[in-house]
Amino acid sequence: MDQKKFDAGLKVRREVLGAAYVDKSIANADDFIKPMQELVTEYCWGEIWTREGLPKKTRSIINLAMLTALNRPNELKLHLRGALRNGVTKEEIKEIFLQTAIYCGVPAALDSFKTAQQVFAEEDE
């Protein structure tokens, strides 16, 4: 493991997903899932999210569309919260999901709209 990339990834991951969530994920990682937590932190966050080519807001927009296409609601919840932290507005999220309805399918987009409603309600509390 590249400790420098892991540390940089951990910093960005905490900024986007929230320190409490990230710290809990790492603390609760047993021997089975620990390698996956390390891989995600080092490569997804330390290698890609730290690149200068795209701002975090754009990366969040792309992730919302891809997670809708892949129909991954658990990851979508995390990245919805991250998108809000990265400055993506609810109006922009709505437009992202309308766009995905055409290119990824209406059922996938509907699930994303429903997931977003849940996240927005939790964030508004």
UniProtKB/TrEMBL annotation:
One of its GO terms (molecular function) is peroxiredoxin activity. NCBIfam families: decarb_PcaC. InterPro entries: 4CMD/NDH-1_regulator (IPR052512), AhpD-like (IPR029032), CMD-like (IPR003779), Decarb_PcaC (IPR012788). Residues 36-117 form the Carboxymuconolactone decarboxylase-like domain. It comes from the Bacteria. This is 4-carboxymuconolactone decarboxylase. Gene3D superfamilies: AhpD-like.
